[in-house]
Amino acid sequence: MKVAVIGGGPGGIAMGIQLARAGYDFTIFDRCDGFGGTWRNNTYPGAACDVPSHFYSYSFALNPRWSKTFANQPEILAYLEKVAAEHKLAEHLVPETRVSTLRWSDDDSRWTVTTADDATHHVDAVVTAVGMLDVPNIPDIPGADRFQGRAFHSSDWDHAKSTAGERVASIGTGASAIQYVPEIAADAAHLTVFQRTPIWVSPRFDEPFTPEQQDLFERDRVEALKVRDAAFQAYESANFGADSTMTQELTAMARSYLERKVIDPELRAKLTPSYPVGCKRPLQSRAWFPTFALPHVRLETSPIVEFTERGLLTADGVEHAVDTVIYGTGFHAADYLRSLDVYGTGGRRLRDDWRDGAEAYLGTVVPGYPNLFTLYGPNTNGVTSIIYILEAQAEFVRRTLDEMSREGVRAVEIKRDIHDAYNADIQRAMQDTVWLANCNNYYRHPNGKVVTQFPYSGTRFVEMLASVELDEFDWKEVTACQESTTRR
Ligand code: NAP
User: What pTM, to 2 d.p., does this model score?
Assistant: First the structure.
């Protein structure tokens, strides 16, 4: 079987390793010039992972040399590149090639992959591994064209010119801004942070690993696994219920931290959220609150109305003149596969099928789209290290392809009733979660449906995926004369 993998990030690497080990003919397309995905794109100052690195790594490629609890972006990128190199994935990579369209042919049961330069490739199966945060959200603020300064998104950082000594505006207060704002505040002449919604922040316990600890992890895999397991268990025991003890305790702790760190009552009021911890992604930083005590940093809560030639105008009539505007405004996370046009059986369009919110069976397969697998697909986010999920998904895809080959099956398509029952169940389970509390988060489709999060534990996801059988799919056999018959 010939397989196309779209994306060379953590998911594409996990998939490539599975396919390489099993001897498949495969290609990994990536819009960038190498492996790493989100860790290649997001190079903003202070970029780091807020999942402990010993758990934010592949189980088959532990890294005893992580420098600290939460490694920074360069270290994570180097790790991913090293894993890809060790598995000789470069020979399968087609870099700097953006895939635009995937089209299934009912006649020959194959996918046609079209790239932005209009080249086409015919494959038996496609694995999308584009991540969930691949398309930046740049809000449509009136007058953007007239602004004379520079503007860029956090995931497309302009390293050509430093923000040191500049007057900077930063829009948004999410996971990215919380990391780069304290960094650029250090040497900007003036920094205005435009906040639409305040966020809960807890202190980050980020400790370096000593050379002795690293040597121990290198010598004794069990010691490294202990550190990994501690993080794993913390996620497994999490309870994202709207009124769970965990939610209440984390909210109380975050409130107490805020009250200790922000003394000025006016500033504290501006920084205090009105929703429980967890409704938005929980954030950790020791540098966020102290940044607003700096004399040249201002927290602005008056809504942005428009760009002017010199900067941004807010609803209170104030013009904020700046040299640089940074969009820390996140991604189109809930709009899955936004960058791809996907056509399945009978020419159906995935964008239309997902009109009311993306859905897949175990985040990985979708009825109407045979031999298409979506890594980090709908409802796979939020409850564990995504690397753990991606590894399981990649293994599932490889196992399904193996079984197809063994059974002489040309195409598999998840049965609609199985897909629908699964999605009804997870949406029922979702009703009690903190993700539906009263906050604006990127987990939801505009109609309110949570499309990104998995409402059970990571282990439950992995076990469910591991127990999927080929008879949960409709399938087409390969007959002696290569004609297909559909079996149900
Ligand atoms: P985000 O969490 O979605 O935050 C976007 C921010 O921009 C929010 O504060 C949002 O305000 C604001 N915003 C959006 N549109 C706006 C508009 N039109 N006007 C004013 N403000 C606007 O995005 P992010 O910070 O890039 O993080 C996205 C995700 O990336 C994270 O949740 C996480 O999954 C991932 N990430 C992970 C790490 C890590 O450590 N592993 C680090 C960085 C990012 P509202 O709150 O009002 O919507």
Answer: 0.96
Does 191 contact ligand 1 (Cβ within 6 A)? no
Residue 468 has pLDDT above 90, yes or no: yes
Q: Which of 329, 390, 444, 452 to mutate to test the pocket of ligand 1 (most atoms within 8 A of CB)?
A: 329
**Cβ(281) – ligand 1 distance below 6 Å:** yes
Q: With contact defined as beta carbons under 8 Å apart, do 12 and 37 qualify?
A: yes
Calpha distance 332→322 (Å, rounded): 27
Which tokens sit at 26?
A: 């495969």
pLDDT(483) > 50: no
Q: Is 453 in the pocket of ligand 1 (CB under 6 A)?
A: no
Mean residue pLDDT across the chain: 96
pLDDT of 479: 54
Q: 68 exposed, middle or buried (CB, 10 Å; 0-12, 13-18, 19+)?
A: middle
Q: How many CB atoms lie within 10 A of CB 142?
A: 11
Q: Is 174 in the pocket of ligand 1 (CB under 6 A)?
A: yes
256-314 tens-digit pLDDT: 999 999 999 999 999 999 999 999 999 999 999 999 999 999 999 999 999 999 999 99
Q: Give the count of beta carbons closer than 10 Å to the beta carbon of residue 196.
A: 13
Q: Whose CA is nearest to atom 17 of ligand 1?
A: 139
Residue 287 Cα to ligand 1 middle (Å)? 17
User: Per-residue pLDDT averaged across 203-226, rounded?
Assistant: 97
pLDDT tens-digit readout, 69-89: 999 999 999 999 999 999 999
pLDDT tens digits for range 140-162? 999 999 999 999 999 999 999 99
Q: Is there an atom of ligand 1 within 6 Å of 82 CB?
A: no
Span 173-186, pLDDT tens digits: 999 999 999 999 99
Query: Ligand 1 in contact with 440 (CB < 6 A)?
Result: yes
Going from the Cα of 171 to the center of ligand 1, the distance in angstroms, rounded, reads 10
Pocket test for ligand 1, best of 176, 313, 386, 435 (most atoms within 8 A of CB): 176
Q: Is the CB of 41 under 6 A from ligand 1?
A: no
Question: What's the whole-number mean pLDDT along residues 320-334?
Answer: 98
